[in-house]
Design a protein that fits this description.
This protein has 53 helices and no strands. By secondary structure, the chain is mainly α. Among the domains are: 186 residues, no CATH class; 50 residues, no CATH class; 103 residues, Alpha Horseshoe (Serine Threonine Protein Phosphatase 5, Tetratricopeptide repeat), CATH 1.25.40; 79 residues; 101 residues, Serine Threonine Protein Phosphatase 5, Tetratricopeptide repeat, CATH 1.25.40. Helix 45 packs antiparallel against helix 46 and helix 50 runs antiparallel to helix 51. The protein starts with a helix and ends in a 17-residue tail after the last helix.
Length: 947
């Protein structure tokens, strides 16, 4: 009855707004209504008013009779007296609530404290309202802090400092400065704490001018003697990139503490001066100041940046001695993990990781990144599974980004899609870094359609997203799409970035892209990206790919002062890929004359490749001697290149020697040796080496073995290798399908070749070319032409090799007019520049049909007719048709071009014999003997049983 009487009294005398709110609060405690806020605060005075959100603690409420609820909700009376049940509440409850809220700020408890302060009238007490203001901020309700501050009539410095601190904590830096301006206007004065907060604001805003103004104010008011303020200013200058000012201020601090030293150690590291960071750390230790977790972490990070493993290990020992490797200082062991990973000591990093009693998400991410950088893919995924067994650790965006990098490098599209699904379920795709990593992963896994879908469906995209999409198009051969997207990007980001340049220039890979590449070059000049070495290198590479070698060398010469090893390598690699082998060798010679530049394994691999393609055996041997005198002689990539070079130069003995004396052989080494044997017609030895292969064969191994089987012409061996291909699961590889088509067609089994081609899941350009060539070898030129048009209809782009196969088929089938038609339109209609190989087949085509004079005139009209292959094809046709007069003229040209080729002499001698000119034939035979020329001995193979 007493409780019911109390509520009746309240219904008659209380304000409807206040009572409805209290009723709702009580119903919330009874789980009958959801939490609500007052529609608007009532403008009462601080002594007897309520302003802000609050909830009444359940233990201070009296039970509400159910029959009173409707009346409570619809009461509209106004109140003039205070509510009686609160009059007896002890003052200490307020102090207890404030103390508990300060330690663990929660909006519920601070609201309760606010409510009690309202009733007890303690809001007039300045320390109390200041405490509430601060606690509201800590609980994440800055708006209530500001309302409380606005209602304080007599504000002191502490109150102003509290609201400024609340603004800084909520990252409202401009608001904090506005409060300081109002503080000055009200002539309240300020203290060191005020300036300390303003310095922190300048640091967060990276506002150097504002920081300098506060520095001047500190000097003028004599407050710079405060060590905390001096430390804050030192830190501010370092964060704003003015390390010299930071050092000057640091030197003026008379009594330095650990924070002073940390400001310089951390500031030097922040400004890219790891040596200075270690210098200050050493000085701090020598001064007798004991390092803390910040000092140790920064010093370890500086050691990581410099690759100073020994110094990092000494800091590791110091950290153990000072007790900073326990669970309370996770940053130190995390920095150690990064140090050991950067220095390649993955075992030490794993030891530190396993010894950590309390790990955070940074620890797991650092260890995963370490495994990934060392190529330990399985360990990365094992660690991810292990991390998920702990409920307190779940993958964050950094974790997923590291996993996606692994998926992109190793092309694990299935695992990458799994990560994508996880990110969608956890609603993490709003993070742009993760989105960009997904775009990069799908691009490198050649899933362009998924990349486009992800890019186009993104709600928000930054410049990195656009760059990743352009690069994805470029590396997957979608040049037009990449260039179109670049033009669209300029509408949103007119200035782009150096990464934009690298991405879009990768799409310029043919002469048709030269004009676009030049426009990008002009854009680079306009925006000043040519001081960026990678941008210059990509520009050089673009001009080489587009066939403008002169422009590439000109740009290189203009930027020779910036040239480093990577720049020289770009030029050499570009020349090799563009078949400019002589220019690559000349560039290497110029590079060696530069004392400031050293060649590396990439340089040697590409220079050896140039020697191999030009078959410059002596030059290759000189490079071999250079390799042996340098530490690069043990590099497995260089050794494999030497094997390939000797194989291409037909020095199989030297290739064997390099192979046998390699300290470490990998699968690539065996592949190079098998390929060298196949290239030199050592088919049996190639198969024998394949039988002793200690590694699981790769697709490249199988292609080399199939080449050896093709040379032998023994279908029994070919079918055995074919069976091995099925057991290994390589049957869907496009290059292997092409090699099988070649092998069966050369072995006379066009039916098996067609069967392999028909059942291939992925028909690459090489497979189409091989089948077209197979039809041509078997005299079915019309079917070859039909297959060419079928290839074009399937979307496969015709290339140089395609037209070599097509013209060869027309030549073998005597389809002269058709062949000439394809040759004449291959550039205009199909975008393929005619080269010597195509022209040889045109001459052969005309020669076979007896149109010798027309073939002769065709060669004479060519801009470059100095190839022995062209004249050799015409000489062969003259020999076939017995055309002695033209044959003699062609022979004289060939004797000047290639005097050591005995085949030309024999062809002319046979023509003399056929014409009955025995005297000329005898004289020519004598010339062959006098010059010591010998014809290559021919041989035939017969399969008589098991080898």
């Amino acid at each position: 009855m007493r409780a019911w009487t109390l509520w009746q009294f309240m219904l008659k005398s209380a304000s409807s707004r206040f009572l409805v709110h209290i009723t709702r609060l009580r119903l919330q405690n009874l789980a009958l209504l959801p939490p609500t806020r007052l529609p608007s605060p009532h403008p009462f005075s601080l002594q007897n008013s309520y302003n802000g959100d609050f909830e009444i603690v359940r233990k201070h409420m009296v039970p509400i009779p159910p029959c009173a609820l409707p009346a409570l909700l619809f009461t509209r009376h106004f109140f003039h007296t205070a509510i009686q049940p609160f009059d007896e509440m002890p003052q200490r409850v307020l102090n207890d609530l404030i103390n508990s809220s300060s330690k663990k700020p929660k909006l519920v408890t601070v609201s309760a404290a606010h409510c009690i302060a309202l009733k007890t009238g303690t809001l007039a007490h300045l320390p109390t309202v200041t405490s509430l203001l601060t606690i509201y901020c800590k609980a994440g309700d800055f708006s209530s802090s500001r309302v409380l501050f606005d209602e304080i009539h007599d504000r002191d410095v502490i109150a102003w400092n509290s609201i400024i601190a609340a603004s800084v904590k909520n990252k409202l830096y401009k608001t904090a400065m506005d409060f300081f301006g109002n503080m000055i206007k009200e002539q309240c004065g300020f203290d060191c704490t005020t300036l300390l907060l303003l310095v922190s604001t300048s640091s967060y805003m990276n506002n150097l001018e504002q920081g300098r103004a506060i520095h001047c104010l500190s000097v003028k008011t004599g407050m710079l003697v405060d060590i905390s303020l001096s430390n804050a200013l030192t830190n501010m200058y370092a964060k704003c990139g003015v390390l010299k000012s930071s050092e000057c201020l640091f030197s003026e601090i008379k009594y330095k503490d650990v924070v002073s030293w940390n400001s310089m150690i951390k500031g030097s590291l922040h400004n890219g001066e790891p040596k200075k960071s270690l210098y200050y750390f050493k000085d701090m230790v020598l001064s007798g100041e004991e390092a803390d977790s910040v000092s140790l972490s920064c010093a370890i990070s500086a050691s990581t940046a410099l690759g100073e493993l020994d110094f990092g290990q000494s800091i590791h020992e110091l950290g153990m001695k000072l007790g900073y490797l326990d669970s309370q200082h996770v940053s130190v062991p995390n920095s150690l993990i990064s140090l050991y990973i950067q220095c390649g000591d993955i075992e030490a990093a794993e030891t530190v990781f396993r010894e950590m009693e309390c790990k955070d998400i940074v620890s797991w991410n650092a260890m995963m990144e370490g495994y990934a950088s060392n190529g330990s893919v399985n360990e990365v995924f094992d660690l991810l599974l292990e991390m998920q067994t702990y409920e307190s650790f779940q993958p964050d965006t950094v974790t997923l980004t590291n996993i996606l990098k692994v998926c992109a490098v190793v092309m694990l599209s299935r695992e990458g899609r799994t990560v994508h699904g996880f990110a969608i379920r956890r609603q993490m795709l709003s993070d742009l870094t993760l989105l960009n990593s997904l775009i990069d992963m799908y691009s490198k896994c050649k899933l362009v359609e998924k990349t486009e879908l992800l890019f186009n469906s993104a709600h928000e995209r930054d410049l990195v997203s656009w760059n990743a999409m352009i690069y994805g198009y470029s590396i997957n051969g979608y040049s037009q799409e990449a260039q179109s997207l670049f033009r669209e990007l300029l509408h949103f980001f007119p200035s782009g970035s150096s990464s934009t340049v690298l991405a879009v220039l990768s799409s310029c890979s043919s002469t048709y892209s030269l004009s676009f590449g030049k426009s990008v070059h002009c854009w680079q000049l306009k925006l000043g990206f040519l001081n960026h070495i990678p941008s210059v290198n990509s520009l050089i590479h673009m001009y080489i790919n587009c066939g403008d070698l002169t422009a590439a060398f000109l740009i290189f010469q203009e930027n020779s002062a910036l040239a480093v090893t990577a720049s020289w390598n770009t030029l050499i690699v570009g020349c090799v890929k563009g078949n400019h082998y002589q220019e690559a060798l000349e560039t290497f010679s110029s590079m060696r004359r530069k004392a400031s530049v050293n060649y590396d394994s990439i340089t040697l691999v590409n220079v050896l490749s140039a020697c191999a393609n030009l078959e410059l055996l002596n030059k290759g041997r000189c490079l071999h001697g250079l390799v042996l005198t340098s530490p690069l002689g043990s590099d497995i990539r260089v050794q494999n290149s030497l094997i390939t070079m000797y194989g291409r130069c037909r020095d199989i003995k030297s290739a064997r020697s390099v192979f046998e004396f390699c300290f470490v052989l990998n699968l690539c080494s065996w592949n190079c040796m098998i390929s060298a044997l196949s290239h030199n017609k050592e088919s049996r030895d190639a198969l024998e080496l394949f039988l002793h292969l200690p590694f699981k064969p790769s697709e490249i191994t199988v292609v080399s073995v199939l080449t050896a089987c093709t040379q032998m012409g023994v279908l029994r061996h070919s079918k055995q290798v074919h069976a091995h291909i099925f057991r290994s699961g390589f049957q869907d590889n496009a290059f292997i399908s092409a090699a099988l088509v070649d092998m069966y067609s050369n072995g006379g089994r066009l039916d098996l070749a067609l069967q392999v081609f028909t059942h291939a899941k992925e028909k690459s350009e090489a497979a189409w070319n091989s089948m077209i060539s197979a039809y041509g070898y078997h005299g079915n030129g019309e079917r070859a032409i039909n297959l060419f048009h079928e290839m074009r209809g399937s979307g496969i782009r015709a290339t140089k090799s395609t037209f070599v196969s097509l013209l060869s088929a027309c030549s073998h089938s005597r389809l002269v007019n058709e062949g000439l038609g394809y040759y004449n339109c291959m550039l205009e209609k199909y975008g393929v520049q005619p080269e010597t190989e195509h022209q040889v087949y045109v001459v052969d085509m005309l020669g076979r049909s007896g149109r010798l004079d027309e073939a002769y005139e065709f060669i004479k009209k060519l801009p470059s007719n100095s190839s022995p292959g062209l004249w050799g094809a015409l000489l062969s046709a003259c020999n076939y048709h017995g055309e002695l007069k033209l044959g003699r003229k062609v022979s004289e040209i060939l004797f000047e071009m290639d005097p050591q080729n005995v085949g030309y002499y024999i062809s002319l001698a046979n023509m003399y014999v056929a014409a009955g000119s025995w005297k000329d034939a005898t004289e020519l035979r004598q010339t062959i003997q006098d010059q010591g020329l010998r014809k290559t001995v021919a041989y035939s193979l017969i399969d008589v049983g098991l080898v």
